Amino acid sequence: MTIQPNGHTASREERNKANLAPFANPAVPGYPTFLTAQPQPVGSLLPAEKFPQNANPPKAFEPITIRGVTFPHRLWVSPMCQYSSDNGHATDHHFVHIGAMAQRGWQGITVEATAYVPEGRITPSDAGIWDDSHIAPLKRQVDFVHAHKGTIGIQLAHAGRKASTLEPWVQVQHEEAGWTGGHVTDDEHGGWWKDVAAASDLSYDNEKYPHPKESSLEYIESLKVAFRAAIERCKKIGFDFIEIHGAHGYYLHNFVDPVSNVRTDQYGGNLENRLRLPLEMAKIARENWDKPLFYRLSASDWLDDVVGPEKGHPGEKEEWSWWGIEQSTILTQKLADIGVDLIDVSSGGNDARQQIKVGPSYQVPFAKHIKEHVKNIIVGAVGIITDPAQANDIIENGEADVVYFARQVLRDIDFPLQAAETLGAAVSPIVQFERAWSRMVVKRDHLKAEAHHEARSEVEGEEGKEGKRQEEKKKN
């Protein structure tokens, strides 16, 4: 036996071989660059057998499966216009914007309102899906989200009478500099004000917004063709779900609302006719898309204090004065019967006279009403939901099945992980960021209390354990 100068009996090579570990950093199969594979969906519950606090988790973190697509939790992302596209094409801004959500545990990520015809954009910088050239940059986002085992869909939209307007910050910057004119983008800067189309030739705001032309029957049929083509592109891109935009004063909202629809043909004149186009579009989507299908609606014009009751002319040919929760419930039932899986309940945006009573959870009563009256559809709630307990209570109390977030995503990208920690659950961060969440992912075998609405007292994670190890070493 040879004793080495350092006192070891084995050679350095032999000692190194004894310490070899036959493991590699796993890569996402098929991804175009190296990307570490995640052991489970980011933001999903860790196994209850290892993390007993997850045995009876908060409802917000219970998975939900729709048409074979499993969403690991119920904190979802609303579509948020970024006004940062290049002739409809997604850019690096969108890749970082969406990719960060996937890394931080958001699910049900909805790509912003995306126009299926160029004149369906709100501004010249809006997202588009009217051409095959739009596929690649959108697929790049989808592939990244899927690489993190996330779920992502898209909102298909037409801006209606609010099209060809200025990007919000462009408008604000010039108004601050003294501009007092309108909000309509001119020809020189990429506008299409001559081609703005709506249900009727009624402007949202005569002083600021475009004066649209009434959509011809030929134009409506052309939109159906473009919509089908957009759905085919969604298949190629690989989206998990599609949401039809029927809210906020845009094209389909223009049609359902007596405030903005004074047509005298089959698409106007009474409730049945006003609902015709949204239902036709939903049927087209359901016939051509076998994955989850959602619909966003505005449940109220908020004109109670301005016009009077929603059903202001009972017994007359047109009974309804404006669009509200009663008609929204009727539309939702018809959408559910067609096969729409989820109704995303927002409000407002179609009448400049609206008197919105803004406050925390201010739109949740609309979601609750629809959930109580339409039993064969999943309901999503949105609107100033900023607190983990607030979000979880909405689901626990049966007011909605999922909760959507918008500005809160931009303010607090880590909200899903922080919400889990606050509610006493343990969920999976991406492995690269795991050290930052050691207090949450510690296996709390000694915790007996169920995790629901209140935060658990802070339990030391790996950081705390390491400090204790150092103390023990000093003692010994």
From TrEMBL:
Swiss-Prot/TrEMBL cofactor(s): FMN
Pfam families: Oxidored_FMN
The UniProt record lists the keyword Oxidoreductase: yes
Gene3D superfamilies to which the protein is assigned, alphabetical: Aldolase class I (3.20.20.70)
Domain NADH:flavin oxidoreductase/NADH oxidase N-terminal: 61-422
Organism from which the protein derives: Papiliotrema laurentii
Gene Ontology molecular function terms on file: FMN binding; NADP binding; NADPH dehydrogenase activity
Protein name per Swiss-Prot or TrEMBL: NADH:flavin oxidoreductase/NADH oxidase N-terminal domain-containing protein
Keywords assigned by UniProt, alphabetized: Flavoprotein, FMN, NADP, Oxidoreductase
Family matches, as InterPro entries: Aldolase_TIM, OxRdtase_FMN_N, YqjM-like
Region (Disordered): 448-476
